[in-house]
Write a structure and sequence with these properties.
By secondary structure, the chain is α+β, with helices and mostly antiparallel strands. The chain has two domains: 125 residues, Ribosomal Protein S5, domain 2; 151 residues, lpxc deacetylase, domain 1, CATH 3.30.1700. The protein is 21% helix and 33% strand. The protein is built from six helices and 21 strands. Strands 11, 12, 13, 14, 15, 19, 20 and 21 form an eight-stranded mixed β-sheet that branches. α1 packs across α2 and α5 runs parallel beside α6. The longest helix has 14 residues. The protein is globular.
Length: 302
């Protein structure tokens, strides 16, 4: 699949609704087409007394515990955005307005697949402007609390994700993928979020996972998968971690680089991106000429 050369949006509004994974409330989501160059913006339609628009970007991240949370300067938040963002990344959506009537994106089945199907049902429109990529120019590495991350130059997005859990049902798993729409749909989109049984109790005591169930998460206890239907893939856990990584990376827009994580999570994903952008010699914006695949510098400044 060729790299996308022009910016895109969706052709018509798309609607879905469901239970929040952590908040437990019912939330309605409306995806709407947006003009060239506007990026991806969440609109909290349940808030009207202050700025309710949250522009997607790495600097908007305010929380990385169990999910990725964005927040604007008025203190308005939107959480658990990573599964939707991964779906948008897979089809190359650049400009989108997302109306949400709650603080969290609906969990649906705990994967990206329902969002991907929703987008593909309404269709994608190419827009009359070049797409802006973040091209990695040099290697950046990060170690934190037993986790490791690396970003290095590559001509496309390439993910190398390793997880390592004591639970025998999970264990050590690795996935390497150069994700495009097809490979994402076939290998990643339906991989569900997961939790360990002992974590569920702690999460609920902390006011999280109120909407979690076997309908939207895989739960393991030692060497057992507790979901009646079992797993969708033998290595569903690492596939979902790669999905999360892809969604977290897309906060910065499309990236040309190889990203490696070991025992990673939302915190590592975010800190690795922030370390990359802190080094102005480690990346640059590029766009693709209309007639060939040679990368050319874009005029956009950091």
């Amino acid at each position: 699949m060729d790299l996308v050369r022009r910016q895109t949006t969706i052709s018509a509004p798309a609607v879905c609704a469901g239970i929040e994974l952590h908040g437990g409330e019912h939330t309605r989501l409306v995806l709407k087409p947006a003009p060239v160059g506007t990026g991806i913006t969440f609109i909290r339609t349940d808030i009207s007394d202050r700025d309710n628009a949250i522009l997607v970007g790495p600097t908007a991240v305010s929380g990385v515990k169990n999910c990725t949370t964005l927040e604007n300067k008025a203190g308005v938040k939107i959480s658990t955005i990573e599964h939707l963002m991964a779906a948008l990344a897979s089809v190359g959506i650049d400009n989108l307005t997302i109306d949400v009537d709650g603080q969290e994106i609906p969990a649906l089945d705990g994967s990206s697949e329902p969002f991907l199907k929703l987008i593909e049902q309404v269709g994608i429109v190419r827009q009359p402007a070049p797409r802006k990529y973040v091209k990695v120019l040099k290697t950046i590495e990060l170690e934190q609390r037993g986790s490791f991350g690396r970003i290095e130059p590559h001509d496309r997005l390439y993910l190398d994700v390793t997880i390592d859990f004591d639970d025998k049902a999970i264990g050590r798993q690795r996935m390497e993928i150069e994700p495009d729409t097809r490979s994402f749909r076939e290998r990643m989109a339906s991989a569900r979020t997961f939790a360990r049984a002992h974590e569920v109790v702690a999460l609920r005591e902390a006011g999280l996972s109120k909407g979690g169930s076997y309908d939207n998460a895989v739960v393991v206890d030692g060497d057992k998968v507790l979901n009646p239907g079992g797993l969708r893939y033998n290595d569903e856990f690492v596939r979902h971690k790669a999905l999360d990584l892809m969604g977290d990376l897309y906060l910065a827009g499309p990236i040309l680089g190889k990203i490696t994580t070991v025992r990673g999570g939302h915190g590592l994903n975010h800190n690795l991106m922030m370390k990359l952008f802190a080094d102005r010699e480690a990346w640059k914006f590029v766009s693709l000429p209309a007639e060939n695949s040679i990368l050319a510098c874009d005029s956009v400044q950091a």
